TrEMBL record:
It comes from the Bacteria. SUPFAM superfamilies: BAS1536-like. It holds the Pfam family SpoOE-like. The lineage of its organism: Bacteria, Bacillati, Bacillota, Bacilli, Bacillales. Gene3D superfamilies: Helix-loop-helix DNA-binding domain. This is Aspartyl-phosphate phosphatase Spo0E family protein.
Length: 51
C-alpha cells in the first residue's frame, strides 16, 4: 500500500508532467491518459483520507 506522502508526490509529479505535455504538445490522447491517471491517484488519496 502506498502512503500519503508518496501519493502526494506522485500526484504532484503527474500534475507537472501534464502541464509539460500541455505546453509542449497538442496531443490530446497523451493529456487524456495523464488526466485519467491523475484522477485515479486523487481518488485513491480521497479514500485514504476517509479511512
Amino acid at each position: 500500500m502506498v502512503n500519503k506522502c508518496s501519493l502526494h508526490r506522485q500526484i504532484e509529479d503527474l500534475r507537472e508532467k501534464m502541464y509539460e505535455v500541455y505546453e509542449t504538445s497538442a496531443d490530446y490522447e497523451d493529456l487524456l491518459k495523464i488526466s485519467q491517471e491523475l484522477d485515479r491517484l486523487l481518488n485513491e488519496l480521497e479514500k485514504m483520507k476517509n479511512n
